Amino acid sequence: MKDAQPKSIYLKDYKRPDFLIEKTELHFTLDPSETLVQSRLEIRRNPEANTPAASLVLHGQELELISLSIDGHALSSAGYDVGPEALTISTVPDEFVFEAVVKINPEGNTSLEGLYKSRTMYCTQCEAEGFRKITYYLDRPDVMSEFLTTIEASESDFPVLLSNGNLIASGEADSGKHFATWHDPFKKPAYLFALVAGTLDYVEDTFTTQSGRDITLRIFVESKDIDKCDHAMRSLKNAMRWDEEVYGLEYDLDIFMIVAVDDFNMGAMENKGLNIFNTSCVLAKPETTTDAGFQRVESVVAHEYFHNWSGNRVTCRDWFQLSLKEGFTVFRDSQFSADMNSQTVKRVEDVSVLRTLQFAEDGGPMAHPVRPPSFIEISNFYTLTVYEKGSEVVGMIHTLLGAENFRTGSDLYFSRHDGEAATIEDFVAAMEEASGRDLAQFTRWYSQAGTPRVVASDTYNEDSGTYTLTLAQSCPTTPEAKAEEKLPFHIPIAMGLLGDAGNLPIQLQGQPADPDTDDNTNIVLELTEPEQTFVFEGVTEKPTPVLLRGFSAPVKLHYDYSREQLTAIMSRDSDGFSRWDACQKLAVAVLEDVMQAYRGDQAYRVDPLLVAAYRAILIDTSLDKAMVALMLQLPTEAYLSEIATEIDVEAIHFARQYVRKHLAAALSAQLEAVYQASNEVVPFSVSASAIASRSLKNTVLSYLICTDTDENLQLAQQQLANATNMTDELSGLTAIINSELATDAQRKTALDEFYQRWSAEALVVNQWLVAQANVAREGGLERVMDLIQHEAFDIKNPNKVRSVIGAFCSGNPVNFHRQDGAGYEFLADQILVLNKLNPQIASRLLTPLTKWRKYDKGRQTLMCNALQRVLAEPALSKDVYEVVSKSLK
Ligand code: 0A1
Ligand code: ZN
Hints:
EC 3.4.11.2, 889 residues, zinc ion binding, metalloprotease, Peptidase_M1_pepN_C_sf, binds zinc ion, metallopeptidase activity
């Protein structure tokens, strides 16, 4: 790939397709290494083409061409040209039938893109550009076609044959094999095509839509997993009902199917009527699945289902518009999860991911706007920015417009663009029309990269009772634009004022009080200028501003809070998110004290304010347990690294451990009491309150294990032995293997017994691998090198790669960032292997190395050396080339 340097593709070069495909008929004859794909495409010239070209150019990769014909006439090799990425036919009529026969090799397909084998099953992954590995086609999302798909295979090996839409015929084929024909009446781009064949069992249910149509729901799994489908089915039905109630959107086909696959690059895929899921995002039962796992299943099932409208009925014109479907769908699934569980907890979880991982992406060499202007390999742009920041951008529109106008805008968008491939402009225009608001400045969120910084300062005038708040915004330089070139964003800042006894009423100067609202302690300021001042009247005492309630915008907001002000917000503000956020800020300040002492070789001091604040939370039984658990969790090493100017790996790790131990010792009585109180035996449930209770108990256990008390080690051992669910069992195991009290033998016994108990459950074994990869004790790299030799590891399976290599490199900073660079060399070795097998996974694993600029000089050199070694590989995939070359720029 390196000989001809991979080219960038630009949004500004977008042209409408020269040809359209009205109808697509496919016939698959399945075989492990020689699958035959016959296609019949009804093609016509696009009357709206920008630059009508005479020749027909179809995408195609790794296809063995058997034959071609146009209108029934076979083409001789003089009539066409086949390259590694395209088939060109120089002259074609205005309207014609194109037929091709190609051979493909599913068994040899380790990229897991196109048609491939996973264990005993055939399945497909076509987003973004995988369909071109199945047959010659116009593989772009603005070419939408009706599909008719026939699959022919041995009935004994592949009793189940599935594709999109409705089953219209099945039976015995002339060959003696059996066949099934599926018809999808909804026009779709090729990236939403799917095929599955295998020996699968299913659970079935029905859903009656609001208009009274009965939909058959089926979840297909290997028979050993049939007892792990209930939660996904329940989640699916909840999602279907919720989308009707909240967005007025109803399902359209007569059947909705989900298939669980063990080898899958991403979480899941929204293929029309036939969603394909990574087993990790669909299978769940209490014995094998943690609470986080249950919640992930609920949200991913909902996410893929919601795509049926935001993605499938209205799709993207081109891949630069990816956030049109992904940002909106993540926003919708977050609203859903919040409604099903707890608003505040969901918000805290989402913001933690955003501030830790997306902000890091936005500050690194791969930073890009929510709508990137260019890419080399689109698979590299399924990012936290496109998904999570994209969702925040939709969320800001929701905040600015209000729920009602937002819903009107969404209705308009879906009705106006149903059956079309749309753009981000189309979405914003619908929102503007529905609300009468001008979002022109707001759209800069889609085109400017980087995390804006907002600095707040204030004055209070006691005599006049006025409080003046000044907000100033800026945005750092990112690869596509310098800081000075960036234009101000339109930033909604939800806020309130806190006084001694609680929140104060808000009266903004020059703005009449809103008679419609009974909550006058909350306001959304709109920051649109580089600097703006807001004056509040009738303020009877010097207030503490509570800024960015609910994290109303994806910005870094700075205000010079005193620690006392933070504890006041923590205990008294009306907004749960802000209470948690204040707690995090206080903890960061305390951790920074210790980091400073560590660097300066001074005595360590943990601010008693934090101890007191935690004590108050632990003894207040009226508080929501989930919130208590979240507040007790100190900012992660990843978050501390993100906010650092230069990452001091050792200081961060030391400080966090030191403060944890200090808190565990100072609060041991309260921690023990909370542990005992929440360790009751109750029937298992995944209700928000049951999850909250386990979360608090296990957070507390992670503190108890930091003490020097043998009884606490026994507590963890008992919990591991007696657990009736995976959340408790895994927390017990994690506590033991991280404990400094445990002996090597005790740690080994716990791990061996766990493995023996669960070796047949791939998803549990993955969690066992993650737990080990994350152990921060010395020797982590050697342990991980042993793990990749373990029988449970398989480099061809993305879940295993993520569980060992991914977890180690991003979740175990002290070991990965070893001073001698051995961690970096290990990762480069693995990336070079994966570059050949599965470029998408190889490229994603690179992320921790791309952040080299934030480390000390010594580490910078070592990290760059590892990247250079990867770049020197002669046969580098586009995926890896793009990330390595951009991160070294
Ligand atoms: N569209 C899917 C996820 C997905 C994205 C990219 C893929 O290959 C590059 C595969 C799947 C979703 O958002 O769920
Ligand atoms: Zn999605």
